[in-house]
Structures are given as structure tokens and as C-alpha cells.
Amino acid sequence: TGAATLGFPMIAKAQSPIVIKMQGSWSATDIFNEMAMEFVKRVNDMSGGRIRIDYLVGGAVVKSFEVMDAVSKGVLDAGHTVPVYWYGKSKVASLFGSGPINGCDAFQTLAWIYRGGGLDLYKELLAKLNLNVVGFFAMPMPTQPLGWFKKPITDASQLKGLKYRTVGLAADLFQQMGAKVTQLGGGEIIPALERGVIDAFEFNNPTSDSRFGAQDVIKNYELGSFHQAMEFFEIIINKKKWDSMPKDLQAIWQYGVEAASSANWWTGIDNYSRDLQVLINKHKVKVIRTPKAVFQAQLAAWDILTKKLSDEDPFFKRVVESQLKWAKDVVYYWAYNDAPFKMGYEHVFK
Questions:
Q1: Residues 39-65: tens digit of each pLDDT
Q2: SS3 159
Q3: d(Cα 190, Cα 196) in Å, to the nearest integer?
Q4: Spatial contact of 82 and 96, defined as CB atoms under 8 Å apart
Q5: Which residues fall within 8 angstroms of residue 272, CB to CB, at 6 or more apart?
Q6: CA distance 131 to 113
Q7: For residue 204, which of 257, 262, 161, 165 has the smallest C-alpha distance?
Q8: Tell me: the pLDDT tens digits for 102-133?
Q9: 3-class secondary structure for the chain?
């Protein structure tokens, strides 16, 4: 009987994939959707069909600023967003992407998250706010431009009274500098400008900015700023969904984030640099380097703001102190070791 049983062919039972409904915070044309799909493809491919992430663009189910709540409540299984979009729950959220100037750039701050204790503090924040998500970070973004202005900003005093769009702690910074700030998702910027709700704005990068038509309404583009000098994507998944996944699939998700982080950077630097030249040469946008005086005014405003928020919230203070402890040695090494690439560029292309 045993021999006869062994003779029957084994019938493989197909395993149904774990379907994950993920929404981004990005308008339909934004390059950030392409970056989100770089993560989705890696996880879907590496899981061999055991996970199927179905990605939706911003607004498909909830608005851009509502993704965190939707994932926490299980309305969405996962989200591709940024912490500044839910900093209304706690200003500490913005410290995990676009916080006070701690000396670090985005690469160094992302290293703080994964090697300097930042991830544990992030988890503590989620627990404090009863947010039922598991989160990871990807894509150390290039410094974000000061933004688009009808008249070039040559002095910080010009920001006083200016109706300006930004998000997160950058909003607090510009308010400290005298601007009248409105926080909007990317898809809302141009309509708000046309209605006179804002006079000037920043979003993120030359590609995203040009895709929603910034160059069609304003011709002065000012590059360089401290207001969002270290941001990255936040890739979140509902905790119940996460806990239901086998450990190997959790690992694929986690390492998919790391793989996407590199792919996103490559995609970003390729597109951003090319589209900046299109803005200059095709659309006749005047690209200006933000003056040193504006950077200095931002630093002075951060000093005031960081002290105020640290005095009000001990947890805010803990996160800032953790970042500063990390930055003290990391940025010292980087600053003294890094080659002067601008000098090299000017030598090569003189």
C-alpha cells in the first residue's frame, strides 16, 4: 500500500498571495509614484508571488495628508508618504524628515535612523500616538530648493508677510521668519497660487515641480535651503497586516525598502539634474542660488524654534539631542574628509 501511495503524483496547492493595498501621497504625474513603484516591484519580484502590492496614487482612497491615519485604521494596508504630512499629530514627526538643522544631510540623518537610535525613537513616537503601523525610511533626498518666487529673495526680510507654501516644521521655521504659511499637498499648489492663497512655494525638486507646472506660473527658482535639508520617504504598513506576515516576507519588505532607497536615488539624480536644465533652457526659468544671508537667517530662526519646542516637549528634546549626538562625530568626519566637489566641477567645466 505504501508503494502504491508513493506512486500517486503530488498535487501542488497554489498559495494565494498576500494582497497589500498601498496608497501614495503623490499626485498622478509626480515622479514619487515611480519611486514608490520601484519599491513595489522589488517586493513583488523577491516574494515570488507570495506578496502582491497593489499601488494607488494620491487621492485614490484618501487625501495625501490622511495616509498615516488610513493605514493605522486599516482603511489602507500600506502607505508611501512622508512624516511631515502627519506632523499635525506631533511636531516630533517632522524630526524624522525635515527637522531642525543638526548639521547632517539626508544621507547622514538616514544613517542616524538605522544606526544611531532614530528608529527606536520613531517607534516610541508611533506608540505614544497609538498609530498601529510599522514604518521604514528610504531615499535620502537632495536638499530641497528654497522655492519659486515672483521676485528673487535676496534678503530674509523679503519673507516677512509673504504667503508661502511648505509643510512640517519648515512651516514653523518660515512663520518664525515672518512668512504667512499655508500647508498644502503638491496637487493643490498651482490652484492655490492662481486663487491668490499663496504668492510663493516650495515642493521638492525640479522634476516634481516642473511636472505640476511651476514653470508656467513663476520664473524665479531659488536653489538651496536649510528648511528641508534632510528628508526621505516613509514606507508604512498596518501593524496587524505586518504581524500576520511570515518572517521571511517581513524580511523581503524590509530589505525591499533598502533596495528601493538606492534605486530611488539613482532615478532622482538622473531626472532632477536633467529637468533642471530643461527648466533653464526650454522654459527660461531663472535659477538662483539662495544667498548666504538667507541661510544664516534660517539658522538663527531654527535656534529659537528648536529651543521653544524642546522646552514645550521633553520627547522633542530627546530626539533633537539624539540627532546632535550622532551629528557631532559623523559630520565632523564628513566635513573634514569630503573633497571640494564644486571646485572640481569648476575646474573640469571651466
A1: 999 999 999 999 999 999 999 999 999
A2: helix
A3: 10
A4: no
A5: 142, 205, 206, 207
A6: 19
A7: 165
A8: 889 999 999 999 999 999 999 999 999 999 99
A9: CHHHHHHCCCCCCCCCCEEEEEEECCCCCCHHHHHHHHHHHHHHHHCCCCEEEEEECCCCCCCHHHHHHHHHHCCCCEEEECHHHHCCCCHHHHHHCCCCCCCCCHHHHHHHHHHCCHHHHHHHHHHHCCCCEEEEEECCCCCCCCEEECCCCCCHHHHCCCEEECCCHHHHHHHHCCCEEECCCHHHHHHHHHCCCCCEECCCCHHHHHHCCHHHCCCEEEECCCCCCCCCEEEEEEHHHHHCCCHHHHHHHHHHHHHHHHHHHHHHHHHHHHHHHHHHHCCCCEEEECCHHHHHHHHHHHHHHHHHHHHHCHHHHHHHHHHHHHHHHHHHHHHHHCCCHHHHHHHHCC
C-alpha cell at 286: 531663472
* Amino acid identity, position 262: S
Grid coordinates belonging to 244: 500576520
